[in-house]
Write a structure and sequence with these properties.
By secondary structure, this protein is α+β, with helices and mostly antiparallel strands. It has one domain. 36% of the residues lie in helices and 24% in strands. It has a four-stranded antiparallel sheet with strand order 1-2-3-4, with helices on one face. A hairpin with an 8-residue loop joins strand 1 and strand 2.
Length: 83
């Protein structure tokens, strides 16, 4: 089973962008700047866009929490490698 969210990038074509991929329905790819999750954000829907605004809001909150936790984990891993 795939994780609910994945981080993706395309540094060869979109240096300043990062993507959070939601693998469960409604599947989507959230594009944002490396500067912050909410910066220049665009949602690319793979499945039909949910009608309920609350469902989208919940999905975005979960994606942002995942994104921030992944960044913190990466920082911690890099710090451990330096020690």
């Amino acid at each position: 089973m795939l994780p609910k969210f994945l981080i993706a990038d395309n540094s060869q074509e979109a240096i300043d962008l990062i993507y959070v991929v939601h693998t469960q329905q409604p599947r989507c790819i959230i594009e944002c700047d490396l500067d912050g999750f909410n910066s220049n954000q665009q949602i690319h829907w793979i499945d039909a866009k949910p009608v309920a605004v609350e469902e989208i809001a919940t999905l975005m909150e979960e994606a942002e929490d995942f994104y921030e936790a992944e960044l913190e984990n990466q920082e911690r891993l890099y710090e451990e490698e330096e020690d």
